[in-house]
Amino acid sequence: LCIVGKRPPSEPRKYDPTFKGPIYNRGCTDIVCCILFIICILGYVAVGILVMPLAWSQGDPRKVIYPTDSRGQFCGQAGTPLETKPLLFYFNIMKCASPMVLLEFQCPTTQMCVEKCPDKFLTLLKAYTNKEDFKYYKNFCKEGLEGLTVTQILSSGLCPAMLTPSKPFTRRCFPALDQKKGGEITVGNNSKFDDGEGNIRDAKDLVAGVKNATVVIEARQVVMKIFEDYTQSWYWILIGLVIAMLISLLFIVLLRFLAGIMVWVMIVMVILVIGYGIFHCSMEYVSLKSEAGSNVTLKDLGFQTDFSVYLHIRQTWLAFIIILAIVEVVIILLLIFLRNRILIAIALIKEASRAIGYVMSALFYPLFTFALLSIVIAYWAVTAVFLSTSNQPIYKVFNETACDHSRKICEPANFSTSSMKAECPDSKCLFAFYGGETVYHKYLIGLQFYNVFLFFWCANFVTALGQMTLAGAFASYYWAFVKPDDMPAFPIFSSLGRSLRYHTGSLAFGSLILSIIQIIRVLLEYIDHKLQGTQNKCTKFLLCCLKCCFWCLEKFIKFINRNAYIMVAIYGKNFCTSAKDAFFLLMRNMIRVAVLDKVTDFLLFLGKLLIVGLVVCFSPQTVVVGSYLIAHGFFSVYAMCVDTLFLCFCEDLERNDGSLARPYYMSASLHDILLEETEEPTQSSPHHINCQMTNTSS
């Protein structure tokens, strides 16, 4: 729809003597989408005002932070009797191998909070005959053992039948499994163990239970592990992020005055940093040669939420070496074969540096974007946490033998005297999951979907606002014949005001299209996760194709949106018209786009990598993502400046011819950079001379 118009696509824009850059006398665009966006935002706020009190009253973030025992109590919660017992212990981890675990997300065995995980093999039968052993064993039993025999204790479910050496993992006690060189699975350095029921079992029997129990907690615990790392070293992380911001700012300022030198220094330093990374990874790979267990493959290790585990595996460092070596070779080859294009891209960055010199406030605009995104993310996160934890604890009947009441909802307070217990003596009423049967709980999934969709829409809107604001400011620089006299006093504020006053609908329209595609990608990932156990290759292939297609579509829409916002900032037309004009303008200048724009993006990407590498050398590795985002924020100003100048340059070429009557607005240096790259200069070419004369007289 956005590339259909009355004007033929291949027809260049004609000369207009009244055009002097971004049009100030403009009207509101895409009003319908603006109204829809405002209504959705009001609905989003209404969700917070009307629904959130209920979510806050029933929601409990502790359900996300702490593991929950069979009674629904939180292990390790401060101010409770379980404060000193932060770990969750499974009575019989092998029962987690049941397929029901993956359906109901709960292991059908008693779970209790303990102070520390067991560190030795021990059965209840053996411990009962030794006073010291039984005292140790009681740490993993319920209360009320006095005067009971072993049989009575086991039948009442007060103690596990056995203990195996375990290690805490994501606040849960899992058997300390290991794999020998021959592939033999061991637990506590033993390949067999006594299950407490008179049977000698293989250690590999524990593997299935551990895997299923881990599946239940993986996604949540990844987030919590990262959160814990940040809370433990927040000051170092904060220092690292401040360093990243200062280095980025210093780098941008130096580019303003020493663009050519800085770009070459940046390229050399990136090559040296990658080379040092290869050397460091090689040393780590060699040092792990004699370490026990380091030869385990990543496939055998599987997914681990404690990422430091991977650093003790030789294959991890080998993968790092290969990846860094490939990146190093690619960069060197690009330098060799694209050296002329790189020289042109450096000159284009110099021109962008001059533009930023006139609009210095643009360097700090990413801080405003970051603040708005922080508000959007915070509102979404708080809403998501309380919505997802506003369910009530649900208890179900779990049993080992056939029972008509299996998996039915029960009440733990009176279960021992209920008819369910009488009909199924070996059954237990255990905590299953969080849920509810009220009207609020029935529509909870809809509220969560609405929360996610509005998050995407608002985040994309904030990003689009930043792009249009910067585009308007840099366009005012380009189309100013006499700089800075013909420029607004405050280009950023002037462009921001125009964008919000006239083009909120266009921003909402572009961000809505992108959000719909992103939410479809999320749904595809959700479907793929649910169908991971299927063996239907046709289904897997179809999902893979769909995910690939929508990934490409998202990249294309981002490209179209970015250039459409530039055209909206200049001409003040609606989104579809601007997207159509930008698309065909770029198609008419396809060669220039291919050889210059992407090379410039590559150089700016190297700058981001250099900043991240410098920050990681002096701060914790957890700041890698934050450092990259900060560097991306500052360099996005340069990227937007380059894209805007390039689009304005293409417009300038179609509007003007370089004569005294229709002079170019571009500088002589920009004329040399871009025009002569794709056109052979001739001795009789008047355009360059007239351009130089015009700019000199200016």
TrEMBL record:
A Pfam family reported for this protein in Swiss-Prot or TrEMBL: Choline_transpo
UniProt keyword list: Antiport, Cell membrane, Glycoprotein, Membrane, Mitochondrion, Mitochondrion outer membrane, Phosphoprotein, Transmembrane, Transmembrane helix, Transport
Comp. bias intervals (Polar residues): 681-698
Positions of transmembrane segments: 29-56, 234-255, 261-279, 317-338, 358-387, 452-480, 500-524, 602-623, 629-650
Subcellular location: Cell membrane; Mitochondrion outer membrane
Keyword check for tRNA processing: no
UniProt catalytic activity: choline(out) + n H(+)(in) = choline(in) + n H(+)(out); ethanolamine(out) + n H(+)(in) = ethanolamine(in) + n H(+)(out)
Mode of membrane association: Multi-pass membrane protein
Family: Belongs to the CTL (choline transporter-like) family.
Role: Choline transporter.
Protein name: Choline transporter-like protein
Organism annotation: Oncorhynchus tshawytscha
